[in-house]
Amino acid sequence: MNMQNCTLCPRNCHADRTKQYGFCHASSEVEVALVSLHKWEEPCLSGKNGAGTVFFSHCSMKCIFCQNHEISTEGKGLKVSIERLAEIFLEQQQRKAHCLELVTPTHYVPQIIKALDIAKQNGLNIPVVYNCSGYEKVETLQALRNYIDVFLPDFKYFYSETAKEYSNAPDYPEVAKKVIDKMYELVGKPVFKDDIMQKGVIIRHLILPWQYKESMQIVKYIWETYHDDVYLSLMNQYTPMYKALSHPKLKRKLTTFEYNKVVDFASDLGFTNCYIQQGKTATKDFVPNFNGENVL
Ligand code: SF4
Fold first, then answer.
1. Is 12 close to ligand 1, i.e. is its CB under 6 Å away?
2. Which domain holds residue 140?
3. Model confidence at 68: pLDDT above 90
4. Which sites bind [4Fe-4S] cluster (predicted)?
5. What's the CATH code of the domain at 73?
């Protein structure tokens, strides 16, 4: 995990991040766009008080429909030292967050490990959640053993063609399967305390317009591989923005028909550990305001 020859994620740029940028456009200094209490995550993470989200700037995926493109691609955010990052983690606990949720952390794993060491020495004891795209390296995840309690990966695409078209990552489906396997090995079956997840894997899948049949393949794969030993979170909140606004297939919202097809399919397979979304979630109102709050 060398910042001068970065191979943290499957892009394998070998960039010297002290001098140049790789695909993710992150330097060796950590940048954070927002520190907040997030009440709209899965109920076992948000609880009553909210999940203690820390949104990191930049991303190694850069999906053309990204809902957080302001920070993932445009790089909005503020530089923080490792010591300040550790303070941020502890401040989230002081705000009574039910968990510390690291959002898009992949390209900062070495710095996050150092900050977690400091924070844990100073009393951090809430579950640490790793919220990522699913485009990871097994070696990088191995370094997180004993640091992460709950993995919250996306499983975005089942077909290489879709992964190439929307995220320029044709290897995504195979990578995501290996990554989720590794995550399950690291934290195991779900464990709860007072309705808050303490250990486990929650796989998120955002259903895209015209894609519900591909979504069913993902749901089937998860069921056949893990049954109810992981949680599935089926998301309907897709809102066209960024490059998707001019894309022929992505420029509209998801229909209720498409979403219900996938939900019914999961239910018919036998999933009981499955979160679904209800009501009008497909709106820009659910995209956080990345205003640097609580970062400095
Ligand atoms: S973390 Fe960034 S620089 Fe490193 S390999 Fe991935 S995209 Fe490239």
1. yes
2. 30-286
3. no
4. 59, 63, 66
5. 3.20.20.70
